[in-house]
Amino acid sequence: MYPAREEAERLLIEAEACNPGPWGNHSRVAAMCAEKIAAAAGMDKEKAYVLGLLHDIGRKFGVKHLGHVYDGYQYMQELGYDEVARICLTHSFSIPDLEVYIGNRDISDEQQEEIRAALAVCVYDEYDKLIQLCDALAGADGVVPMEERMADIRKRYGSYPQDKWDANMALRSYFEEKAGEDIYCLVNKKSEVIHDGKGKK
Questions:
Q1: Signed CA dihedral, 170, 175, 178, 181: sign only
Q2: Blockwise average pLDDT, block size 10, the chain, 201 residues
Q3: pLDDT in tens, 94-131
Q4: Residue 172: which of 153, 158, 155, 185 has the closest Cα?
């Protein structure tokens, strides 16, 4: 289950008020990309938009690394949005292995085990893969080249596993084949105006 578009947008605005930052517009860019790619690939574009919009909703609870994955997963489960909870979990793991997570493991050992166990039984579907792709495409100000975004993460954290890099690039190829179009052309790379939910551009 997942919320309607209007409710998803309300949840994001509410979350941004708790923890303002560029992550909100990153989420909007991811949602825009997900909607357009889904429409071209024969998927449910409304579902894709909502999942893209809420993939980072765990950031409502503060500036965290792995904590935002866990917090989003728990928060969406509490609201009954199990399909969003799943995306909160899987979006950071194009390879379903906690060991390849880039960033601080700022949650308890018990919480890490909960994530590890959930990933172990999760068989990725088209929407898991789509939001992983869109997360890698989305900057706060618009779509960015995936290589540029991954290189920035590598610079900030000191490493980026090659198998995760390769997995992300494979996602791009997969959806380009499915949609029959270059991903950057599909999402209108240079023409999007991003709104922050408050009427600003």
A1: negative
A2: 97 97 96 97 97 97 93 97 97 90 88 93 96 94 90 82 91 96 83 40 32
A3: 999 888 888 788 999 999 999 999 999 999 999 999 99
A4: 185
Distance in angstroms (rounded) separating the CA atoms of residues 46 and 121: 26
The dihedral built from the CA positions of residue 183, 145, 87 and 49, taken in this order, carries a sign that is: negative
> Please, how many CA atoms are within 13 Å of residue 28, restricted to the half-sphere of its CB?
21
Specify whether the CB–CB gap between 60 and 75 falls below 8 A. Answer: yes
> What distances in angstroms separate CA 188 from CA 29, 33, 55, one per listed residue?
11, 9, 21
Q: Do 163 and 95 meet the contact criterion of CB atoms below 8 Å apart?
A: yes
| Neighbouring-strand partners of residue 143 | 138
One-letter identity of residue 114: E
Indicate whether this model's pTM tops 0.85: yes
